[in-house]
Specification:
Elements lengths: L6 H9 L2 H11 L2 H15 L1 H21 L7 E7 L4 H11 L4 E6 L3 H9 L5 E5 L3 H6 L7 E4 L4 H22 L22 H32 L1 H6 L5 H29 L9 H25 L3 H17 L12 H6 L4 H15 L3 H30 L1
Parallel strand pairs: 1-2, 1-3
Antiparallel strand pairs: 3-4
Helix pairs in contact: 3-11, 4-9, 4-11, 9-11, 9-12, 9-13, 9-15, 11-12, 12-13, 12-15, 12-16, 15-16
Length: 394
């Protein structure tokens, strides 16, 4: 077996060679490096831009990661118990013991209970008939009436499912002489055994933050040149168009990759989101999505005359991108047309990659199509935005 020489000594040897020193000195004296230094100095002097890079991503991650929760808890439950026996009190206790429902509102009539639902004081109401206990003793089916506020359709459907399941479990416990079931399922939750909703939402919020921050910050740097009149001054320099644009992209790319690391730190320290995949793979795919955000931002800047137009125009791009990505609403719940349309959404592919890398630890073998789609969209957006920018320079 051939012995592979260590990479670090070879790297250090190549860096210390005269050829590398000559190339490095030539790079430091180039027009491109002078433009990069100019862009870095402008960014460091622009406190508003630094604020957009650090403060909003941190606050958005903390707020969205904490508030976006598909689980429903502490729903107010109203009770009308005409029977008022120990059996009915056990039923009420079964509904409230798992903290999904809070049974703290007792009424004496169905009309009063319906009024409370109408006024929004309770989410669901339970009416137990007076002959409930007698029907159970005679082996008959005892029915209860459930009233649910259907204004919030999602909460109503979840509440209905919980009530149905709890009542069925309560009914099965009353069958003392029933034989045990032939099939006893043992359920195991993979990748998220504690069912922490933040583990699902935070990787999506990371992509959401990169979308908003990347497009707005990159567009702001280009539009600023228009507002201050320095774009015309750049045209009078001997720098080529590609040097001007590359010098603008390079500092933004590094700053936005810093946002990626900041978001990962918050996800790990605040929400306890694990990182089970490859750092190199995740950073490479994040770099692709950063280029997507930069491409969108430059495109917005080329079609807008000032910063106000950039912000207003971004709503027509960023909001549909976020809504079709699956960061907030499941893609499976969308109409078929929008499910296919979401395949053109770069944020959808990045969220699929980030969730799979962080929670499942998978790589290229499982996410190759998402990476290819993300790369193709990044190249397309950068090509269009660079062409538009060159047209303005000319």
């Amino acid at each position: 077996m051939a012995i592979v020489p260590p990479l670090l000594p070879l790297l250090l040897l190549s860096l210390s060679s005269p050829m590398f020193t000559q190339l490095f000195n030539r790079f430091l004296g180039s027009r491109f490096w002078a433009l990069v230094v100019k862009e870095i100095n402008q960014i460091l002097k622009n406190r508003q831009l630094l604020f957009l890079l650090i403060f909003p991503p941190t606050i958005q991650l903390l707020i969205f990661g904490s508030s976006l929760d598909p689980q429903v808890q502490n729903l107010k439950l109203g009770i009308v118990d005409y029977a008022n026996t120990s059996v009915t009190r056990e039923l009420v206790s079964a509904l409230s013991e798992n903290q999904i429902f809070v049974a703290d509102n007792y009424s004496f009539s169905e009309q009063a209970l319906a009024n409370q639902v109408e006024q929004g004081k309770i989410t669901a109401g339970l009416v137990i008939p007076p002959d409930f206990n007698r029907q159970l003793q005679q082996g008959q089916t005892a029915e209860v009436q459930v009233l649910i506020d259907g204004v919030n359709a999602n909460t109503a459907s979840i509440a209905q499912g919980y009530i149905t399941q709890i009542v069925r479990n309560y009914s099965s416990n009353l069958e003392v002489n029933a034989t045990p079931p032939l099939v006893n399922p043992q359920v195991t939750f993979l990748y998220n055994p504690g069912l922490a909703s933040s583990w699902f939402f935070v990787p999506g919020v990371i992509g959401l933050v990169l979308t908003l921050t990347g497009s707005l910050v990159s567009s702001a740097t280009v539009v600023r040149e228009k507002d201050t009149g320095t774009l015309e001054q750049l045209l009078m320099t001997p720098a080529a168009a590609w040097e001007i644009l590359s010098a603008k992209i390079a500092p933004l790319f590094l700053l936005l990759m810093g946002d990626v690391l900041l978001a990962l730190g918050i996800a790990r320290l605040i929400f306890g989101v694990p990182f089970r995949g490859s750092w190199a793979f995740f950073l490479a795919t994040s770099a692709l999505y950063v280029f997507v955000g930069i491409g969108v931002g430059i495109l917005l800047a080329t079609i807008s005359k000032n910063q106000q137009q950039v912000v207003l125009t971004s709503f027509f791009i960023n909001i549909p991108v976020i809504q079709l990505s699956g960061a907030i609403a499941p893609i499976e719940s969308m109409p078929t047309f929008f499910q296919y349309l979401s395949l053109l959404d770069p944020l959808r592919h990045y969220i699929a990659i980030s969730r799979s890398v962080l929670l499942k630890g998978v790589g290229w073998e499982a996410l190759g199509l998402n990476v290819l789609a993300l790369g193709a969209i990044a190249i397309l957006l950068l090509t269009i935005s660079i062409k538009q920018f060159r047209t303005q320079l000319n």
